[in-house]
Specification:
CATH architecture: Alpha-Beta Complex
Structural class: alpha+beta
Largest sheet: 7 strands, mixed
Radius of gyration: 15 Å
Strand content: 35-45%
Distance between the termini: 32 Å
Number of domains: 1
Number of strands: 9
CATH superfamily: Nucleoside Triphosphate Pyrophosphohydrolase
CATH class: Alpha Beta
Order of helices and strands: EEEEHEEEEEHH
Shape: globular
Helix content: 10-25%
Length: 156
């Protein structure tokens, strides 16, 4: 995988009143502000030099949700080729977390485009627990396979 862009993420899951639920987050910034279906993601991010996939997934979860994931034994769901060509390695972790307020890291961009004004936005602006069927409709296209893999592996 040398030269390939890679990222890793963590799909937190719990048993809800009506069955399994997964934690996904809505992407922040003006591009995603008025979008819902196809605008959510699992907490994920790029590898840094020498990092292993699980270390990336745990670090990115904390950066994007604002709190470390609960303790537990992550289960590898696999590698998922994204439409961009990037490979996303995902782990599932059973645990519960209050996500009524998240504290995501920020990114900067010029907005409005061409204005010369640089503004900061949260990478993720909210998070929520959803049944896999709902999450499948909410996540970006390349992550639908992640939800499917979760259901095959752990979602029963």
């Amino acid at each position: 995988m040398a030269g390939e862009t890679r990222s890793a993420g963590l799909l937190l899951h719990r048993e809800g009143a009506a069955g399994p639920e997964v934690l996904i987050a809505h992407m922040g910034g003006p591009f995603w502000a008025r979008k819902d279906d196809g605008a959510w993601s699992i907490p994920k991010g790029r590898f840094e030099d020498g990092e292993g996939a699980l270390a990336v997934a745990l670090r990115e979860f904390e950066e994007e949700i604002g709190t470390p994931p609960p303790a537990g034994d992550p289960v590898a769901l696999g590698d998922f080729r994204q439409p961009s060509g990037k490979t996303l390695t995902v782990f599932a972790l059973r645990g519960d977390l209050d996500v009524t307020e998240i504290r995501s890291n920020l990114f900067e961009m010029e907005w409005p485009r061409g204005s010369g004004r640089i503004q900061s936005y949260p990478e993720m602006d909210r998070a929520g627990w959803m049944p896999p069927a709902v999450a499948r409709a909410k996540v970006v296209k390349g992550q639908i396979a992640v939800i499917d893999a979760f259901e095959r592996t752990l979602g029963t």
